[in-house]
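Notes from the pairing session

We agreed to fold both candidates in a single pass and log them together. This is the raw record for the first candidate, unedited. Please don't reformat it; downstream parsing expects exactly this layout.

Candidate A
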Amino acid sequence: MSTQFYTQDQPATSQPAARRPHRDGPSWYRIAAVIIGAVAAAALIVLAISGLTGSSHPAPAPRATASQPASPAQPSAPSANPAQPSAPAANPAQPTTPAVPPSAAVKTLQQQLGQLNYYEGPVDGIMGPQTTAAVKDLQRQAGLPQTGTMNPATQAALARYLAHGNNQMAG
C-alpha cells in the first residue's frame, strides 16, 4: 500500500523542478568581489612591508584648517625674548648634543677617578651619570656625604687618595 497524498497544487506527474537558465561565464558580482579582494590584499601587504622596514621619512605635520588653529607646540617664529630662546624640536633619529660642553677639569677628574678604579667610562669631559656615580663612590669610601658633586672635602679626599692610595683593592 502506497502513502501518496494528492494535492491540487502539485502536478500528478513527477517532473524535475524548473531551473534557472545557465549563463555562460562568472557573474559580475563574483568578478567585482575578486577584484576588491585582490586590491585589499595588496594594500595589506604594502602596509605590512612598510611597517616592518620602518619609514625613514618623518610624518608630515598636520595642517591647520580655518576652524582649527595651528599647534602651539610648533612656534612659527623664533622667540623674540632672548632670555627664553626657542628650543629646537628633538629628533629621535639624530643624537642630541650635550647641553654642557666638555670641560678640561671634568676630563682631569675622570682620569684621576680612573686611576683609583672608581671610574671606568670614557674620558670625555662630560659630567654624566658614570662620573657622578664615581664621585659618590669616592665620597662613600672617604666617609663623606654622597652628593655626587665635587666640593672642597671631596677634592681633599681625592688628593689624599692620589698621593697615598685609597687601599680600595685590598680586602
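Candidate B (folded immediately after A)
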Amino acid sequence: MAKVNAPTYSVHPAVTHGQAIIANLAGTTGRSLPQWLKLVAAQKLDERRAIMAWLKEAHGLGMSSAMLIAEAATQGSDSLSAEGYLRAAPGYVDTLFAGAKAVLRPLYEDLLGVARALGEDVRVSPCKTFVPLYREHVIAQLKPATRTRLDLGLALGGLKAEGRLIDTGGFAKKDRITHRIAIASVADIDAEAKAWLAKAYALDAG
C-alpha cells in the first residue's frame, strides 16, 4: 500500500479551540451561533470591533465568544472551520513572503524541511504574521522580520543564549518563544541552527 503524504499544513490549535467554544455557545450563552448571527444582522453592524463591543456590553459575552461571533459575522462561518483554515493557510504564507520578502521564501522552505525531518509529529500551522511549528506545544516559529532576514524563533525555556542564539526576553515574559536565530542566507541554516531547533523539539517531548 502506497504511503500517503502528510498534509502541508495542520489545523491551528486556536481553530480547534474556537470550534469547541462555538459548539458550546447555546449552553454557555443561551443562543447558538446562527441565533447570534441573526441578532447581529438585525443591529446592522458590519465592523468586527463594533460587533464585539455590542456583544460584550449589551449581552455580557466574554471576549472569546464575542470575538468568534464577530468573526463569523464579518468573515463567514467557514472562517471558523478546520476546512476553512486549511484553505486559507497557504495564502497566509504567500502573503508573508510577497513582494520584497519573496527572496526569503527558499529559506523558509529549507527550514520547514529541517523541522519536519525531526519527527512525524511536527505540525506547521501558519498565522497571518508568522508560521508556528508545533510538537505538543509551539517549538519554533518562522517570521520574515525584514526584507533580508528570516527569524527562527525557538522555545528553549530558560537556557542561556550562546553562539548565534539571541535571547528575546520571552522566558521572563512567560512566552513560548524565548530565543531566536537570524537567518539571512542558506549558509545560516548550519549545524548550529539545526542543533538549536532539534533542542527545542526535544524539550517538548511531553
